[in-house]
Amino acid sequence: QVALVESGGGMVQPGESLRLSCATSGFPFNLYPMAWYRQAPGKERDTVAYIMSNGDDIYYQESVKGRFTTSRDNVKKTMYLQMNSVKAEDTGVYFCNVLNQYGFTPYPWGQGTQVTVSS
What we know:
Blueprint: E1 3-7, E2 10-12, E3 18-25, E4 34-39, E5 45-51, E6 58-60, E7 68-73, E8 78-83, E9 92-98, E10 113-117
Parallel strand pairs: 2-10
Antiparallel strand pairs: 1-3, 3-8, 4-5, 4-9, 5-6, 7-8, 9-10
């Protein structure tokens, strides 16, 4: 059974940092490109960043470039999102899942982790 468990969210002030984690099980994590998705209040879920299976190719949404860093540990089957210099517009529920590109299909979504940036 596939499990995607996001953690590390919370309420922070603008300019602070957070580190999100995504623990997975039930599928061959090391073979899949993985992505972080964000659903902001009143908006559709979008892709914040993704990392290919070998960790060498990484994409960031323009709005987070230079502030967010994603990484993965294929042995631990875990993905991370380091969020620095956060802004109010980073607020939302963050999900991890298989990248929905290149013929890959996301698994059923986990609960996500809430990130709230507010002064």
